[in-house]
Amino acid sequence: MRASRASRCFFGQVTPLICRTCFEFAQKGQPIADYRLHYFPESGNSYKLALMLTLCGQDWEPVWTDFGGGVTRTTEWRQKVNEMGEIPVLEDSGKRHTQTAPILLRLAERYGRFGGRDDDERFEILRWLFWDNHKLTSYMATYRFLRAFTPAPDPSVLAFMRKRLDDFLGIIEQHFQDRPFVAGSLPTIADLSMIAYLSFPPDESGYDLAASHPAVHAWLGSRRVASWLAGTLRFAAGQATAQIRMNASPAA
Which of 83, 136, 142, 179 is close enough to 250 for a disulfide, judged by CB 3.0 to 4.6 Å? Predict the structure, then answer.
């Protein structure tokens, strides 16, 4: 139960040894959890899995990864942790799983939470998960990274990505005109997947959704979704921004 001096807990706080939660588990002489989540605080995809595990009532151990320092691009890390060179990675009873969408699907099936009530809803969940990973999350994660975490982003690249994001946000703005959640009348992992990168503050995301996309803003502000965003696992967005080294890549 030791961590490096530069380690951070899952809230993005720099911790000299271990975070309070890990300390309390250690004091009780209990194993931390069946799950270990390799993450870094600025990652929306890490947030998705942390939130899903918590909503399913599962204990999990945060494993901070020096993504900004380039560790995920090293041969050793890719051989030992994830050959795809990406975060998050979820360890489940000693096995390492990667890619957020299939992990969300696995957890939904395992714990019977947020996976849809019938075949139609399950199809809609898959449809929107694939769309989100291919379009919304993919572009928003990269746009936010370039805009907020690099010293001199190319204006033409930002303009291209902004145009694409305007289109994607317009799609879900229209989608939420007549429904409360992504795939039906109740929240599912499709909602959980899509909220992550939309929950970061405007100075990082570049969007004031209340002004530009009111239906999306209303969805994020609905009681159920807002309770997810206000939970104890919400990242301290931007808190560790100054410590991110600019040689990082946006694949997170």
Answer: 142
Span 133-144, pLDDT tens digits: 999 999 999 999
Q: What are phi and psi of 174, to 5 degrees?
A: -70, -40
119-229 classified as CATH 3.40.50.300: no
Spans of all domains in the chain: 20-113+236-243, 119-229
Residue in 46, 9, 54, 37 with CA at minimum distance from that of residue 230: 54
Q: What is the pTM of this model?
A: 0.79
In the 3-class helix/strand/coil scheme, how is 177-228 assigned residue by residue? CCCCCCCCCCCCHHHHHHHHHHCCCHHHHCCCHHHHCHHHHHHHCCHHHHHH
Same fold, 20-113+236-243 and 119-229: no
